[in-house]
Amino acid sequence: MTNKPDFLTNYAPTWGRRRLTPFSRVPATARLGDVWQTAAARGGSRTVTVDRPADIDPSGPLQRTYAGWAELVDDAAAWLYEAGVREWDRVAIMKSNHLDVALLACAAARIGAVPAQLAWTHPPEFALPMLARLQQPFLITDQVRLVQCGLDEHALATLVRRTIVVDGSDRTDVVALDDLRGAAKAKPKLRGLDEPMVITHTSGTTGVPKLVMHSATTAHALSLVEAEKWPGAALEAEDTMALADPFCHQRLSTGMLAMATITPTMLMLSDPQSEQALKLIRDNRPTVVETLPNIYLYWEQFAQEASRPLRNVRLYVNSFDAIHTRTIRTFLNATDHKRPIWVQSWSQSEAGAMVIRPYSRKSVAKRGHRPPPTQVLGWPIPGLCKARAVDPETGKKVPAGQVGLIEIKQPGRCLAYVGEQDRHELKTNGFWWNTGDLGVVSRLGAVRLVDREIDRIPGASAIELEDVLLDRLPLTTEVVILPSGGQLPVPVLSTQNDEPLVKSDWERATADLPTLAEPIQIKWEEFPRTATWKIRRVQLREQLLDGASALGIGRWT
């Protein structure tokens, strides 16, 4: 019989389940273990389509009803139980990006285990310490990850309890998933509402990602925003939604709760660079699109195709980070809808959606404007979240309009950082959570993001400069401004088809900007990225700027 793990002893207290208003649409379930079964009961004949077969069912169809996917979750739960997974066991899922990562997490949660969803992009220096923090988990992986993550026989024997390989292996120290098929159905046994339910991780832009723990109670609070019937910007059952987010991320854990409540037709895209993913969009003409800021940036040329594949979209959503003005304008102009809406959600794995803002075509009409409209992220979610700015050194609240570290207070905050509770406590101040971002809170409560604290540059905002330069230089496909110790900030950029940057274009674009170093041009694929497509700025600085250091403290990253 397994015992409760050590990391339960110090987790933070949670708030109870709630709703934003008495009239709010609230999630139909708070538990991952029954999310697909709830969706099956509510979804009727509506379908969920993927862009390639599931790795756990490679001969299965690309399209299933919600009930069909729920059946696959039950099958997976049986396989895990057959492999020895029991209540309170941790199950690390680290395989190629696909909806089946989320399905496996739901299957583990369905039999009382605690899934830990890890990205498929990790090198050994990230994967091995993350597995160590999970205290001998079961591991579900694939052949590519065994090599990529340095999971040799010694590593597996040291770090994990048992390893299941979804695409088989001739190694004797692992179990092939095929050997578990046909197992008897496992009896569902779900975790309590305030007990740990799922572990995901932060993006890891500055080093080894932190493992973030949530319960059903915290996940329910985070998904209130997604289930809510926002005027003109609510997801509805009649929608066709294209979603291209990493399936290992906390965004999917809470997003599935809203999905099970509303049950729209879904296109779940695992590879936003693949032709098959884009074909699904062209063929199905979604009415709602959600993906990461940098995937939207990558998709700009797709959005401008003459066939107008996005002509039916009425709502775009981006979470995670600030979005670029040029990108919003491009996509709003790509639809034939009269009044499309773009919703920007500033979010973190630890606290979900904190600040939201809608955009219309008119609000992003000006090109290269300073400050860019997207730098004002919006307002804390009414009835759910509060925001303030504090001095990075003293922790005291700064006056409205003054730059400080942004702290937020809302009920969905995570329970813990698994294996690093000291880092979690460093970011808490009672019920306030330190986001690690520098910004300004106006007298009206609007949050303007300046920079990540560790990436700050003197007297300016890299976020602002990057947005303005992308807007003024249409050929650019990425722009990153790197701090460089006491030297001038260094712009790093890529362009369409790697066309050389024209010096006169650069001079015109930067004429009214703070003085920058000469730009460095690299290929788009040379930018080091996380699984959420964020730029690993620390790594990029180490690659390009020999000996240069950041100015920020970095205490909270």
TrEMBL record:
InterPro entries for the chain: AMP-binding_CS, AMP-dep_synth/lig_dom, ANL_N_sf
Residues annotated as domain AMP-dependent synthetase/ligase: 45-415
Top-rank lineage group of the source organism: Bacteria
A Pfam family hit: AMP-binding
PROSITE patterns: AMP_BINDING
Protein name as it appears in the record: Class I adenylate-forming enzyme family protein
